[in-house]
Amino acid sequence: MFTLYKTHRPFVGPFDPCPPIRVKSFSTPPNLYIGFQPNNFPQFTPMEALRAGTLWKPLYDPYYNSRELAKGGNPL
Amino acid sequence: MWIYEKKLQYPVKVTTCNPMLAKFLIEQYGGADGELSAALRYLNQRYSIPDKVIGLLTDIGTEEFAHLEMIATMIYKLTKDATPEQMKAAGLGDHYANHDNALFYHNAAGAPWTATYIQAKGDPIADLYEDIAAEEKARATYQWIINMSDDPDLNDALRFLREREIVHSLRFREAVEILKEEKDKKRIF
Amino acid sequence: MTKQLPPEFYELMEQLQAVDFVLVELNLYLDTHNGDSEAIRQFNHYVKERKRLRNAVESIYGPLMHFGHSYSGDPWNWDDAPWPWQV
Hints:
Chain A is built from 3 helices and 2 strands, in the order ββααα. By secondary structure, chain A is α+β, with helices and mostly antiparallel strands.
């Protein structure tokens, strides 16, 4: 499945002092997959665009911290 | 020439009186991958880049100054009425000793802004790759700050700024494609 | 100075910010897509739209721009507070 966040599993050493974070995630935003934006990309309305930080729907990739995500984030 | 417009690019709001967030946000004011660095990097590179992409560097560089003003607004609001005690408790005692509540171009650790943060190699591809990397680094910095912030309004404006990095990165990638001049041609090797 | 702005100011300002944001986005897009006539048509449409909104905002707030890009009131009101980071 296509996703804008990828994960990796860092090595867990037997003598690591802190409780291990077993899965780390990182952002792979849409610009990495577009190359050269085609004409006629779908758009947000002006007010939505301001809120989203972009006019172009396929470029929208909001970032929330874990506490915001636990509350369901706040997508447009 | 530049003309000032008396308005923010985005309506910045801050919910909580929390000077510690200002300490983190200063990274995007006077840090290596901050908005000042971004604006000066692009507006300086444009004098030697091919004509086809001067407009893009001019426009993104100009937008970065609007982002700098947004960051300044956040820091201003977070520290405006903070007492010396609150500044100290927020880890801003070192800052206060030198600057009171004034803003200054340094990073979150207090290192002053330096021109060594920005590059101008004169090679168009090297410079545009530098710009793409700078946008991705700024995007990451916004993520780390959002990770430490529980202020809903502030995070909303930080998400706006992070999204701008994504759009700018794509435009710089397109600029590279334009300079390669092979966008619609078949490779022959 | 503690001149407070009416609620309409915030509404109109946000509408202007939205239209200006579309203009920024189209502008950057057109910098790398200079042959997209539909986007150019849209850009020029919003240029007109921003003029209307800018006049509406200025009628409440005073001049948005300096150096002759906005008309002044009498007395000179360009430098009146509140500034963008204060509103």
